[in-house]
């Protein structure tokens, strides 16, 4: 199979387009559910979100979604269990992903182009345009798209649950709130790096595992004393430890989210002041963790902690009282507290529950 499509045109210097390579770009992206169009008179109701690099009329949007449905339905006739996930054309790549029954993520990517000027046998200059189809990896695109859905689900729950429990308006808002920023951050020239860092089981593990026994004790103590469901420990972007109850799928989504949050914090000049008001509601929780000395496992200088002499009961009570007046724990800081939705089950959870369980993610640095 040819790796590129080549066209030639005769041109003059006055109208010669820019030569060289143009990278792939996103043409449009949408989220739709055909079942939401209650009648043929209102087919646009199925489109929950649409964004494009230029203004697109409503009828064109419907044609694009209609073509996507037709391609998926056609391929389903030959492969019911695995409908089309991508379609190659001369200038574009169409990608389809069904993360939940009935809900589709669909995107169109304009292929990268290589333009060069050559001379034919008669000495006339010709513009050769080569569409670089082979530079877009289908598996990589699908993997990054799945990662985006995992991040959406982590922060919002499933689209089905939002539609059932709330309504279509809230679902539209949450989809737009997440994907409007995320989808335009794609760099198609760096898809391999995006995939390696976040997909294909892309959770680098710190080996050998330091202080494994102490961290397991921390995990068990948090579950027993504070009803903490799961524990995950990161060293930078590397996984140090995760509870047995925390699935690798959730670990991947949580790691991606936490790393992004920490990068954003480093870019801010005063991150602590911005979070103080938000964290004040969890003051008693942070105090209780500090006073139990469970977080001694994460002190920045273990040697100093081990060399510290024993103190009397009175001094210990005084130190605990002092710590209780602090708004942040003794050995670090609470970065953020976010509501998340995980497929992992805690030991305290009932067996008969929804597909996702709601948690509060407490990020401690």
Structural description of this entry:
With 365 residues, the protein is α+β, with helices and mostly antiparallel strands. It has eleven helices and 13 strands. The strands form four sheets. A five-stranded antiparallel β-sheet has the order 4-3-7-6-5, with helices on both faces. It has a four-stranded antiparallel β-sheet with strand order 1-9-8-2, with no helix packed on it. Strand 8 and strand 9 form a beta hairpin. It is globular, with a radius of gyration of 27 Å. It starts with a strand and ends with a strand.
Please describe the structure with a list of short key phrases separated by commas or semicolons:
4-stranded antiparallel sheet, 13 strands, 365 residues, alpha+beta, 11 helices
Portion of residues in beta strands equals: 15-25%
- Tell me the helix content: 25-40%
Overall average pLDDT: 76
Low-confidence sequence ranges? 300-312, 318-330, 348-354
Query: What's the Cα radius of gyration?
Result: 27 Å
List the helices and strands and how they pair.
Layout: E1 5-10, E2 20-22, E3 25-32, E4 47-52, H1 58-78, E5 86-88, E6 92-100, E7 103-110, E8 112-119, E9 125-132, H2 138-156, H3 159-165, H4 168-182, H5 191-198, H6 212-226, E10 232-235, E11 238-242, H7 248-267, H8 271-279, H9 283-292, H10 302-307, H11 313-324, E12 334-342, E13 357-364
Antiparallel strand pairs: 1-9, 2-8, 3-4, 3-7, 5-6, 6-7, 8-9, 10-11, 12-13
Helix pairs in contact: 2-5, 2-7
Structure described in brief:
By secondary structure, the chain is of the alpha+beta class.
């Amino acid at each position: 199979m040819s790796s590129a499509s080549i066209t030639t045109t005769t041109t003059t210097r006055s109208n010669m387009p820019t030569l060289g390579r143009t990278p792939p770009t996103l043409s449009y992206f949408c989220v739709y559910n055909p079942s939401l169009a209650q009648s043929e008179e209102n087919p646009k109701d199925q489109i929950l979100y649409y964004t494009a690099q230029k203004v697109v009329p409503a009828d064109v949007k419907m044609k694009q979604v209609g073509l996507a449905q037709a391609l998926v339905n056609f391929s389903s006739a030959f492969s019911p269990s695995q409908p089309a996930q991508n379609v190659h054309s001369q200038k574009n790549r169409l990608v389809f992903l069904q993360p939940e029954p009935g809900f589709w993520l669909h995107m169109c990517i304009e292929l990268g182009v290589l333009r060069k000027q050559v001379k034919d046998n008669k000495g006339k200059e010709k513009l050769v345009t080569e569409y670089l189809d082979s530079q877009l990896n289908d598996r990589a695109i699908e993997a990054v798209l799945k990662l985006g859905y995992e991040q959406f689900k982590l922060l919002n729950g499933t689209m089905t649950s939002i539609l059932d429990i709330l309504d279509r308006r809230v679902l539209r808002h949450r989809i737009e709130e997440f994907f409007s920023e995320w989808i335009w951050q794609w760099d198609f020239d760096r898809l391999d790096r995006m995939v390696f860092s976040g997909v294909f089981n892309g959770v680098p593990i710190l080996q050998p595992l330091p202080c494994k026994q102490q961290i397991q004790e921390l995990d068990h103590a948090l579950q027993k004393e504070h009803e903490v469901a799961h524990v995950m420990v990161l060293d930078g972007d590397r996984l140090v430890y995760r509870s047995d109850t925390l699935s690798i799928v959730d670990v991947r989504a949580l790691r991606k989210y936490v790393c992004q949050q920490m990068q954003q914090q480093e870019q801010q000049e005063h991150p602590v002041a911005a979070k103080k008001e938000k964290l004040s509601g969890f003051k008693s929780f942070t105090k209780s963790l500090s006073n139990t000395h469970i977080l001694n496992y994460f002190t920045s200088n273990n040697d100093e902690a081990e060399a510290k002499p024993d103190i009397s009961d009175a001094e210990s009570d005084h130190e605990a009282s002092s710590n209780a007046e602090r708004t942040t724990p003794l050995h670090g800081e609470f970065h953020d507290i976010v509501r998340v939705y995980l497929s992992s089950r805690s030991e305290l959870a009932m067996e008969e529950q929804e597909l996702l369980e709601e948690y509060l993610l407490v990020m401690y640095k």
